[in-house]
Specification:
Elements: E1 2-6, E2 13-18, H1 25-39, H2 44-60, H3 62-73, H4 77-102, E3 106-108, E4 118-125, E5 128-132, H5 140-151, E6 155-159, H6 165-177, E7 185-187, H7 192-200, E8 205-209, H8 212-223, E9 229-232, E10 237-241, H9 247-259, E11 269-275, H10 276-291, H11 309-324, E12 328-329, E13 348-351, H12 358-361, E14 368-374, H13 377-385, E15 389-390, E16 392-396, H14 400-407, E17 414-417, E18 434-435, E19 438-439, H15 444-450, E20 452-459, H16 477-488, H17 494-514, H18 522-528
Parallel strand pairs: 5-6, 5-8, 6-7, 8-9, 10-11, 10-16, 11-14, 13-14, 16-17
Antiparallel strand pairs: 1-2, 3-4, 4-20, 9-19, 12-13, 15-18
Bound molecules: nicotinamide-adenine-dinucleotide (NAD).
Length: about 525
């Protein structure tokens, strides 16, 4: 079926694509499994050559990529370039450099009690990985997990969001341009129904980025077959500003962190706590900075449009509820005055909020920034942690010691001191949320390893007929007890350890010598005596 796609803000037609019917899901998996046979056996370096070609194709086509992302989401072109194209190019470069190390077999130590053996960990591809991605960063949240899964030798089926489907078409074209073998990456175009069919077809791994609600549905479905998953979910990220912070920097960061991509960022600043002595000054400066932002869709504008009309209802409900409960709208427009179908929301700074309001507890995912004062460090930590989410947080202070102290008490998957959001852009750091922020992580070495089956291996030469801890146990309890005492006790007693160990060895060797004689079961002995 042909699917006509419109610009979210202007409504003009921006392209079309062929929808993948759910009935084709089995064909996709069959092709992915066929491609897996050869792709998984390629040496890592050969797979990385394809990823390098993909990176070069991305750089070559970046203007087109930016245009498609921007048209599909209403994102400012500069933002599409910085937060999508740059993020993906850096992530692929990182994979090219790190994958040989991250995925190589790693020798590990073996305890002395297993003397003579060696141990290692091996990473092997899982099979067919399903990547389900959202609309807010449709390029990076698709391309990065796909690239990590492919580096590990898996084949991938990607289902991008139905809200920004042309980005999926673009990704398909980039992979074709990079020359990937047939079936290594397949893009399935469709919505929830197709996503459900893909999950039910039992992939070997699911990497999901999206809402908490869908994440829970997918996890429940995956649990039926114990399919491993990574869930990258929502956020309600706090920003804690202490009185000693560089206020100008904190204000500039707050407007960018809360309003870039019109606040449709999982790691958006969704609530700010400001220490009381600087609260008034901070709020005044924040309002001034927000008023200066330029709205439109040129590369020189700051704020684009909302992407998904339904999201406006959530934003309106949070703001209206807060205002009804006594909050104050310092900048922006009251939701009752929004024009029907108008997707450019003005940045809204909301004061006089309380911690129990939806605007402080639920993910708003729009250009809304509630600000609240606090008095003590302890109070700030408690307020920040008082959330069902735990994706990211930022702490602003000129005392880095305090910043680190606060961060170590925050229940969060990511944290930044005197900056925000950027952990997702550093591919050396694992990325993932805690609580309802998500399960598991990707990026960094762990990102590539997650997409692999990890096999822990121990090797013995096979020379001896039996191990000291094998049957028969006769006479072994005491030497084992002495071994435990001498090795793991208060102080290590090497002579005692060796004595016990040699005793156990000798018992095993005696057992070896007697092994040729037939064993008489104990109860038989009793019966015959
Ligand atoms: P969503 O959950 O509606 O959809 C995400 C993807 O899942 C889409 O491709 C969708 O078609 C698919 N899907 C929906 N229902 C499905 C089902 N039952 N079975 C299988 N697939 C299904 O999310 P969204 O609205 O596209 O994205 C916004 C959400 O994503 C926000 O909550 C945001 O915080 C979160 N997000 C998280 C991160 C992160 O890294 N943690 C990043 C970006 C966005």
């Amino acid at each position: 079926m042909t699917w006509v796609v419109k610009h979210p803000a202007t409504g003009e037609t921006i392209g079309s694509l062929q929808e993948t019917p759910p009935a084709k899901v089995n064909d996709l998996y069959r092709e992915a499994k066929e491609a897996f046979a050869a792709w998984s056996r390629l040496p890592v370096r050969k797979r990385l050559n394809y990823l390098r070609a993909l990176r070069l194709a991305i750089v070559e086509d970046m203007e087109d990529i930016v245009r498609v992302i921007s048209q599909s989401t209403g994102k400012i072109p500069t933002e599409a370039l910085v937060t999508e194209v740059m993020a993906v190019a850096e992530a692929i470069l990182h994979i090219e450099k790190r994958a040989p190390h991250a995925l190589k077999t790693k020798k590990v130590k073996t305890p002395i009690t297993f003397i003579g053996k060696t141990s290692y960990v091996e990473y092997k591809p899982r099979g067919v990985v399903l990547v389900l991605s959202p609309w807010n960063f449709p390029f990076q949240l698709s391309a990065i997990p796909v690239a990590e899964a492919l580096a590990g030798g898996n084949t991938v089926i990607l289902k991008p969001s139905e809200i920004s489907p042309l980005v999926g078409v673009l990704i398909e074209a980039l992979f074709a341009k990079a020359g990937f073998p047939k079936g290594v990456l397949q893009v399935a175009h469709g919505g929830k129904e197709l996503g459900t069919a893909l999950v039910r077809a039992k992939p070997d791994y699911i990497h999901f980025t999206g809402s908490v609600r869908t994440g829970k549905i997918i996890q429940a479905e995956a649990a039926k077959h114990l399919i491993p998953t990574t869930l990258e979910l929502g956020g309600k990220d706090p920003m804690i500003v202490f009185a000693d912070a560089n206020l100008e920097r904190a204000v500039n960061a707050a407007v960018w962190g809360a309003f870039s991509n019109s606040g449709q960022v999982c790691m958006s600043v969704e609530r700010i706590y400001v220490q009381r002595p600087v609260y008034d000054e901070f709020v005044t400066r924040l309002a001034q900075a927000a008023e200066c932002l330029r709205q439109g869709n040129d590369p020189d504008d700051d704020l684009g449009s909302m992407t998904f009309p339904t999201q406006l209802n959530i934003v309106a409900s949070h703001v209206k509820q807060a205002l009804e409960q006594g909050a104050r709208l310092l900048t922006g427009e009251h939701p009752d005055t929004w024009q029907e179908g108008w997707m450019f929301l003005k940045p809204m700074i909301v004061t006089n909020v309380t911690q129990d309001m939806d605007i402080m507890q639920e993910e708003t995912f729009g250009p809304v920034l509630p600000v609240m004062p606090f008095d003590t460090e302890e109070e700030a930590i408690q307020l920040a942690n008082d959330s069902r989410f735990g994706l990211s947080a930022s702490v602003w202070t000129s005392d880095i010691g305090r910043g680190k102290r606060v961060v170590s008490r925050l229940v969060t998957g990511n944290a930044v001191i005197n900056d925000l959001i950027i952990t997702i852009a550093n591919p050396h750091l694992p990325y993932g949320g805690v609580k309802e922020g998500g399960l598991g992580a990707y990026h960094a070495d762990i990102g590539m390893q997650t997409f692999c089956v990890r096999t822990s291996v121990m090797v013995d030469s096979g020379r001896w007929n039996r191990e000291v801890h094998w049957f028969p146990y006769a006479g072994k309890f005491l030497p084992f007890a002495n071994l435990v005492r001498s090795f793991w006790g208060r102080s290590r007693n090497w002579p005692g350890f060796l004595r016990s160990y040699l005793q156990l060895l000798s018992l095993s060797r005696t057992a070896d010598r007697q092994a040729s004689k037939p064993l008489m079961p104990t109860h038989d002995k009793q019966l015959h005596s």
